[in-house]
Write a structure and sequence with these properties.
single chain; mainly alpha; 2 strands; about 70% helix
């Protein structure tokens, strides 16, 4: 459907790439795709691998183009599409669950399905015009605590970070009106506050999980991930022990689509044993060795492993652009601010620590276009098209046909 819409927009000459950020994003995305094509040719990747790799990036760029054209600068459309993602994720779980989710426990189902969908829905509600004053912050705190209790540490931390950010923005608006970028001192203080808050929340979660307050599954998982030398910091993302050596061996060219080399799986396993992680016993399986797929648990590191340095450059650009969104002082009634703050922290986390999955081809472009709309609308540079004006355009186009 997205591809069909893209082709319609192209042939009808309606493609709209309105900002320098949008243009640079697409240019860097095309360079990422070109780099992967060259890498696959040099590495002699299998057709089944590079067909998926090329189409994965290609469809991401197609979706970005469609969203820039149809959603950018239109808060109402962004909210509607957000509800589609939230409701669609829940429906997919019941209609066509993946193999991992079939018969999964409530904790697993919440972590991989409901945490994102429900949290997105709550922040969309908090972004309504009637939800002002303390309500967005209160809802973010409740959602963060609930996600933590349900075992979704990442999403819970993102909700709590969004609550802290909204609190700081609200305090700043009281001290001084206007719309400007955060001062360097304020930005540093905000970053340190969020970092300290996240560390404090993770410490509290670790204590609760270790004591069994959050259930046996959470207790067992935490004990395994924290058993090694560097604790949960590395135990929660053991894939880095495979991706970093792979990047070191080929930092410029990469290893190709769906990169495969069992030597990196063995290196990860040995590193876990040396560092004393109990999870090492489950870090490698016969299926892993047969496939040889290099574990990738990060948009950034995965793109670097597969496509080389240009893949990393694209995601650095996304990280910087997202950070710029958080470095602004928005009006208290800025549209999309609550959901934008949640999606900003979600995107920062996913780029660094989450695997690139099929749904990311939709969730990432949507999040990025919404964030650019938030930043540009607050600064008065986004071209917003009110619903009344859009209806007038439609009536004008239909009038000759109706008269005829």
């Amino acid at each position: 459907m997205m591809l069909a819409v893209f082709l319609y927009l192209v042939f009808d000459r309606k493609i709209r790439i309105p900002t320098p950020v949008a243009r640079w994003t697409l240019v860097l995305g095309l360079l990422w795709l070109a780099s992967l094509c060259v890498t696959d040719i040099v590495r002699h990747s299998a057709f089944s691998d590079y067909a998926r790799g090329w189409s994965n990036i290609g469809m991401t760029l197609v979706n970005l183009t469609v969203f820039w054209t149809l959603l950018y600068g239109r808060p109402r459309r962004l909210v509607l599409f957000g509800w589609g993602l939230a409701i669609g994720g829940v429906l997919l779980f019941y209609v066509n669950p993946t193999e991992i989710l079939e018969g999964a426990s409530e904790t697993v189902a919440w972590k991989f399905v409901f945490a994102y969908s429900v949290s997105l829905g709550v922040f969309l509600i908090a972004s309504g015009k009637e939800r002002r004053s303390h309500w967005p912050i209160t809802l973010a705190l409740i959602m963060g605590a609930f996600n933590m209790v349900q075992g979704s540490r990442n999403t819970g931390g993102e909700c709590l970070a969004a609550a802290l950010y909204l609190s700081v923005i609200r305090i700043m608006r009281r001290k001084g009106p206007g719309n400007s970028k955060l001062r360097a001192r304020t930005a540093i203080a905000l970053a340190v506050s969020i970092l300290v808050g996240v560390v404090g929340v993770m410490w509290a979660y670790g204590r609760a999980a270790k004591a069994g307050i959050l259930g046996e599954d959470a207790q067992r998982k935490y004990e395994q991930e924290s058993s090694g030398k560097y604790g949960v910091l590395l135990g929660g993302r053991i894939e880095l022990l495979a991706t970093i050596p792979a990047i070191y061996d080929s930092p410029i060219l990469g290893h190709g689509s769906w990169a495969k080399d069992p030597i990196y799986i063995i290196q990860m396993h040995r590193a876990l044993l040396l560092l004393g992680y109990r999870i090492a016993a489950k870090s490698i399986t016969p299926d892993d060795m047969r496939s040889g797929y290099i574990p990738e648990h990060s948009y950034f590191f995965g793109a670097w492993v597969d496509a080389g340095i240009l893949g990393a450059v694209f995601w650095v650009w996304i990280l910087v652009s997202t950070a710029r969104v958080l470095m602004r002082a928005y009006p208290a009634d800025a549209e999309l601010l609550p959901v934008g703050s949640f999606l900003a922290f979600l995107l920062l986390w996913n780029v660094l620590f989450s695997p690139w999955g099929t749904d990311a081809r939709f969730t990432f472009p949507y999040s990025f276009v919404l964030l650019m709309t938030l930043m540009d609308t607050a600064s008065g540079t986004a071209e917003q098209i009110p619903a009344s004006r859009a209806k007038n355009r439609i009536k004008t186009k239909l009038a000759p046909r109706l008269q005829h």
